Each structure stands twice: as C-alpha cells, then as structure tokens.
Amino acid sequence: MKNLFENELRNFENYSLENCEKLAFQNRFDTKFILKIDGAVDFLQNKNIAQNYSILQVDNSKVQDYDTLYFDTPDLFCFKCHKNGRANRFKFRTRHYLSNGKIFNEIKKKLNTGKTIKFRKKREVFQQEFDADFEELAKENGFFCENLSPSLAVKFSRITLLSKNFPERATLDFGLKYEFLDKKISLPNTAIIEIKREKNGERTFLQKYLRSKHIEPSGFSKYCVGICLTKEDIKKNIFLPKIRNLFFENERESENYL
C-alpha cells in the first residue's frame, strides 16, 4: 500500500523536516475526514492539490511510519472522558517516529474551545510503561496521574502536506493497526485526513476540495476507536456511527464490533 501512495506523490514538491517543525502547531484546531483508500488516491492525484501543497520528505521517503503506545487507568478514565464529552480531556502516549528514530512522551489536551494543545518531551528508549520520565512531563504541565498502564498500541503510516499559501498542515493516515494483548485489528481500507491550523473557521483549499467530493468533517479519535475495537466489555454506543463509517478489509467485518 505504501508503494501505491509513493507513486502518486511524484508530482508534489518536497519540503524538509525543519520546515515542518516550524509549523508543528502544538497549539491548534483540528478537522478530520474519513475516506476509503481509493478516495485517498484520487485526492493525491488531483493536480490542484499538488499545486497548492508540498510533501514532507524524510530520508528520501515521503511516507513515514509511527508506533504509538497509549496509557490509561484500569477503568479507562481518559477514554470515558472523551466518550462522555468532557471538556479539557486528555490522552497520554509514547510515540516512536520511525522515519527519524525520535521518541517522545506526549500529552494531548482538548480544550472546551475545540483547540488541541500538545505537550511532549523527547526520550531515548520506547518504554512499555508509564515511567518516571513520563510522570515528570505530566507534573510539569499540571497533570497528576496514578495507576496509568498500557491500554492500546497503534501503528499507522502518514503522509504530511504543507500549504504553500498560508499556515496549514494536513496529514493523511492509513494502514491503521490496533493491538491490545492478543487482540489485533487492521483497517487496511480506511484513510484519515486531518487538517491542522492555528485559527478555526478558515476555509482552506483542502477543505473546499473535500467538500466538493461530499466528504464531510467527522470527529475521529484513533485511541477511542481502537479501544472500542479491541475491548468488549465497554459502553461504546456513542462511537458506533464512527465504526459504521470505517472501511474494514471486507464490509461484513464491521458487524463484529456493532
């Protein structure tokens, strides 16, 4: 699948990781869209997209791989905060950016204004537990956590686009794989586009394109969807519409999670 996307990226100009970090948007508004893989291919084939956006390239690769480990309490407090629509909710994760080998502890906080703030701290080893380094990052930013343990592993590939016209970054994620204990779920036919910008309400070229294809914004949490797919004894009614909109390897597979 990565080769399929690599072929469609030849018409895009490249930009470096240094330029990408200037627009990291650790304090941002997010808008997400869910589509099938063939829809993602059509998106990348559009000449106007290639004219208005460039692609992040790291070590000659325009597709980057991510390994993420989420942490939560035994009763899934972070998941439940999201499920219940709580303002100022947060998630804890360690993420390995395989393209450059960097590893970060990260905390994502969603404000009641809709804005996302991300705190992170580099580390040297991908740790399988919520250790003292992560606890230090949490306390430095006002989070006091107890009994956090691994709750979900997530792997995916990402293409990152940068607008040539104004401060906007977009990501195209695909190849989603979830794992917890002996449960493994893949979403090979699902792609997620996420638009990231500092101001809300801007109508960007990318948003106009998706609207022309009748692809509407859809809130999507990789973590919450993964929890619903890998754990059976949880209340997940609020996420069922999201699961119905996912594209599994075959259409009947979604019935296992509804």
Q: What descriptors fit this protein?
A:
258 residues; alpha+beta; eight-stranded antiparallel beta barrel; 10 strands; globular
Helix content: 25-40%
Over the alpha carbons, how many angstroms does the gyration radius reach?
18 Å
Apparent shape: globular
Mean pLDDT figure: 87
What's the total count of β strands? 10
> What is the SS-derived class?
alpha+beta
Describe the structure.
By secondary structure, the chain is α+β, with helices and mostly antiparallel strands. The protein has helices at residues 2-8, 17-22, 37-45, 47-52, 77-83, 132-140, 205-212, 222-230, 240-244, and strands at 14-15, 27-36, 53-56, 64-72, 89-97, 102-110, 115-123, 149-163, 169-180, 183-197. It has an eight-stranded antiparallel beta barrel, surrounded by five helices. It is globular. The mean pLDDT is 87.
Give a quick rundown of the structure:
The chain is an alpha+beta fold.
SSE topology sketch:
Elements: H1 2-8, E1 14-15, H2 17-22, E2 27-36, H3 37-45, H4 47-52, E3 53-56, E4 64-72, H5 77-83, E5 89-97, E6 102-110, E7 115-123, H6 132-140, E8 149-163, E9 169-180, E10 183-197, H7 205-212, H8 222-230, H9 240-244
Parallel strand pairs: 1-3
Antiparallel strand pairs: 2-7, 2-10, 3-8, 4-5, 4-8, 5-6, 6-7, 8-9, 9-10
